[in-house]
Amino acid sequence: MTPESLVQEAKHLYSLPDVALRVNQLIDDPASQPSDLAEVILCDPALSARLLRLLNSAFYARPQPVDTVTKAIKMIGYEALRDLVFATCAVEVFKGLPPERIDMERFWLNGVACGIAARALACQRSLPESEGERLFLTGLLHGLGKLMLLSQRPESYSEVLRLSDQDGLDLVEAEERVFGFNHAELSAALLKSWQLPESLWQPIAHHLNPDAAVCYRTETEIVHAARVIARLFQATMFERESMQSEAATETLHALAERLQLAPESLARLPGDINLQVTEMYEIMMPGWMLVY
After folding, report:
1. Residue 83 DSSP SS3
2. Shortest CA distance to 142 belongs to which of 95, 189, 93?
3. pTM for this one?
4. Within 13 A of 22's CA, how many CA atoms are on the CB side?
5. 144 or 71, which is more confident?
């Protein structure tokens, strides 16, 4: 079994809805206008509402309220619009996993925190704004492979957890022993099958081991760091762990060195993204209550 063969096997379960495919086609068409995209998005009231909520949230911090979908598309830009549509559709595609297999609220909270941390790190590295938007989606969707494995191979993933819990194997090492690949490689294969750009799925494929990346190295390093920051963010939120602990400080210093950033800028990041994470989570997962 390979990541590609598993994606192909479950293709009918994880196909994107028509609205995502149509938006993707229009964005790739140089002749399309914001009004064309607005016409498609307005056919999906929930997506329209999320787009307007997003543009008026702390994530974008616009000085004036945005009240129409067409205006929102003009302000957010095509690439960021594609990110929102695909992110929203991904949440819908993976709805329904039994709660005994995975806590979906915490899974998506981790994804949102990873995406926002990646966007913030891209800004700190002075990457273009469009690259920061793409890295938000990269961070958000980096863990989809784990959902696929839990959904399609639950018994085998139980063995992964046993190897991790009882034998002390790292979770990624346990995945590779059981499946021959890890969830990051499967995430990348799924996003590639959705015809998303290589610049998005390549950093996901190698973010667990950035040294293996032969292209998009900076982006891969950013996703790697954002994943760690998201885990620290959740630890402080749910387990009340201190960001000032020796272990956390050492981890952040190592990440800062890899990214060529000041250590204090990374140390502040889990706290700095708190409001954005909470607001983005509520936009993407309406009806799910974030309690901590």
Report:
1. helix
2. 189
3. 0.85
4. 12
5. 144
